[in-house]
Each structure stands twice: as C-alpha cells, then as structure tokens.
C-alpha cells in the first residue's frame, strides 16, 4: 500500500504531508527523552513537501530520521542538543545533563500548573469557593457574641442583617450574619466530646470516633436533603441560600455540646434541663433570624406567570396554593424550628449514661 | 444508628424505587401520567405536579449512574457481607 509510485503524480501537498506523518510515526525510533513525543518531529517535516517526482515513493531520501532539528517554534525544546538519536544504553548518561533536567523541571512545572488550574476549575463548579470564603470571615468577638446569642437570644433586638450594596455584610461586621465557622468547629467538638463521654462509660474504642463522626455527617446530609426537597416540592420561593441553611442547621451543635456538658456536670437532670433551655433558645433564635431571611424573599402574591394566557385563576383557591406564598414559608420556618431541637435530642441521647437518663424518669 | 454507609444504602434503595415506577403501566393508571393533555391548564405549582416533576427528572438523570452504583454495591456486599 505504500509503494504506489504510478498513482499519485500531481497529488496535493497536504495529502503527501499526511503520509509523511504516518511513516514517521511508524518508522522513526522513539526519541529518548520521553517528554518529547514524535508529534513535533512530524509537524516539522510536514511543512516541507518533497519534490513532486518523488510523491509516489514513501521513503524519501530527503527525510532523515536521525537528526532532530528544533524548528524554533517549540518553546521548551529550544536548547535541545544536536546530538544524534542515542541508543537506549546512553539514555542514563543523557538524563544527567543539566539541560535535560531543566527541561524536565519546566515541563513538570507546566504540568503542575495545568493540573492545579484544572482542579480549581472543577472544584469551583461544585462548590462556590468565593461564596464559601464569606462564611469563614469571622473574628473572635463575633464568635463570642454569636455563641452568647444562640444561648440567650431574648435580649437581642435588632435581627436584620446589614447589607452593603446588595450583598450581605461579612459575619465579622454583623452578629446577625450566618457563618460556617461555628458549625464546623461545633461538629468537631461534638465528635471529640462524644468520644470523651463514651470513654467515661467504658464504651470507647478508636472506631467510635469515626462512627460518631460519620453518623453526625450523615444526619447533616439527611437534614439538608430534607429541607431542600421540602423547599422544592412546596415551591417556596425564598432568598435563603443552601449554605445559609447549612449554617443555621449547624448552630444546633452548640446546643448539643452544652447539653452534653450539663449531663457531665449534673447527670440526667442537668442533661434534660440544659437541653430544654437551650432548645428553646435555639428555636427562638432561628425563628427570629429566619423570619427575616425567609420572608424577605420576593413574595409576589399577585403574579402567576405559569398560567396560560386567558386563564382565570381559581378565586376559591386558598392561600396555600399560591406559589411562594407567605403561609408556606411560615410553615417551613416552624418545621425547621421544630426539627432542630428534636435532632439535638436524638443525637445526644445515646451518649448520656443510661443510668442517668433513667433516674429522672423513675423519680 | 445512621452512618454514612446506611445513608448511602437507603438512598440507593429509594432511588431504585423511584426509577422502577413505570410510566405507562402504572403512573398513567393512577392519574400521575406526565403526558396528559390537561396538564397545561392545571396549576403548575401544586405539590402533586412538583413531586411528579421531581420523579421524572430523577428517573431521567439517574437511570444510567444507578446501574453502575447498583453493580458496585452488589459486588461490595458480596465480597464484604
């Protein structure tokens, strides 16, 4: 198939160049530094088609397999030595030359930069990294004030988040803004405290730490999925973002930790008292905060864009069925405010010593 | 106790359950069909519509990955009990 000397007189240049590529890929020995693929050689040779009377013959005398010549358009191959293609035995010696090492390092750096870019791009698609940074912009005084607020919210009067030209202000500057620092620290503290409480009851083993951690994580995921599906199914239109919801549901770790400390200090009585008091505080806090966030989203009670033209909306339909209606949001808010204490109780009851739990019930 | 593995198993089973609901044989018989003519005039934001929409989307999106996940889970459970 290669030697069709009579057929291709007058064939075009590009077609000839294509066959040059094939032969080069087949016939040339592989160049020793593995990072220079045979492609550069091929594109270099494709630019110079051999004289027409040689078109039919594939193996041109004009081709030289032996001398690689950098055509100047390969950036990192500029310093390639003009040595002939080395035999496999000389590869080791050639790799020690500083020029080869420099090129290898440059290539490695280029690859690493590409990889880093690719990872950041892909990660940026799933997690909004800049958005995430907002939630971790906290400082010590904010954390202290927020913790105090979660435990005793009854004297706080101004619950509205301050805005700074359409974007909410960073948590550093406003105690009402949600953050993800307290939830993540609370999660870690909860896992450690759970391990400690289990250790006090001689139920501890190192696997328990991972079991508790994965259990709490599974509950977080389950809770978030539940909230998101509820919001979607009831078509509740709110301005509440997913990360905000995650932040608010993470505040219950504070309550759990305080309840566990109460159980450590005073046994079953302490556990139930702390749980009841802190849950009430958390529910109050959530209602006050979420009321502003949930109900701040555009209500638009009169607009019904999904109806076809000329359709009269049912005048007897109740408030519930209006898309994004206020009633739905209020119900969702109550749903959230009720499930948080329930989950607090559920996630801590297996950690409190069973004897202490039974005591107040028995008396 | 709810662990990540239990959550994964439960969600896999739920997704399987959602995907086996047959459009023709079952959904239309129950009045949950997705291609009826009356749909354009119904309330597009009712809960029933949203749930059925969700079911249809889940079915379309997770049909193929669910096959792969099921095979992996079966192999995993066979090997590790």
UniProtKB/TrEMBL annotation, chain A:
GO process annotations (BP): endoplasmic reticulum to Golgi vesicle-mediated transport; protein transport
Main location: endoplasmic reticulum
Annotated InterPro entries: Yif1_fam (IPR005578)
Membrane topology: Multi-pass membrane protein
Keyword tags: Endoplasmic reticulum, Golgi apparatus, Membrane, Protein transport, Transmembrane, Transmembrane helix, Transport
Cell compartments where the protein resides: Endoplasmic reticulum membrane; Golgi apparatus membrane
Transmembrane stretches, start-end: 180-200, 212-233, 253-286, 330-348
Highest taxon above the source species: Eukaryota
GO cellular component assignments: COPII-coated ER to Golgi transport vesicle; endoplasmic reticulum membrane; endoplasmic reticulum-Golgi intermediate compartment; Golgi membrane
Keyword Protease (UniProt): no
Entry's family note: Belongs to the YIF1 family.
Function: Has a role in transport between endoplasmic reticulum and Golgi.
Name under which the protein is recorded: Protein YIF1
Organism: Bicyclus anynana (Squinting bush brown butterfly)
Gene symbol of the encoding locus: LOC112050523
From TrEMBL, chain B:
UniProt key word Disulfide bond: no
UniProt key word Transmembrane helix: yes
Signal peptide coordinates: 1-22
Keyword terms: Membrane, Protein transport, Signal, Transmembrane, Transmembrane helix, Transport
Compartment(s): Membrane
Subcellular location, principal: membrane
Gene Ontology CC annotation, any one: Golgi membrane
One example of a Gene Ontology biological process annotation: protein transport
InterPro entries on file: Yos1 (IPR013880)
Pfam family, one: Yos1
Function description: Regulator of endoplasmic reticulum secretion that acts as a key determinant of brain size. Required for secretion of extracellular matrix proteins. Required for correct brain development by depositing sufficient extracellular matrix proteins for tissue integrity and the proliferation of neural progenitors. Acts as a regulator of the unfolded protein response (UPR).
Similarity remark: Belongs to the YOS1 family.
Identification of the protein by name: Immediate early response 3-interacting protein 1
Organism: Bicyclus anynana
Source species taxonomy: Eukaryota, Metazoa, Ecdysozoa, Arthropoda, Hexapoda
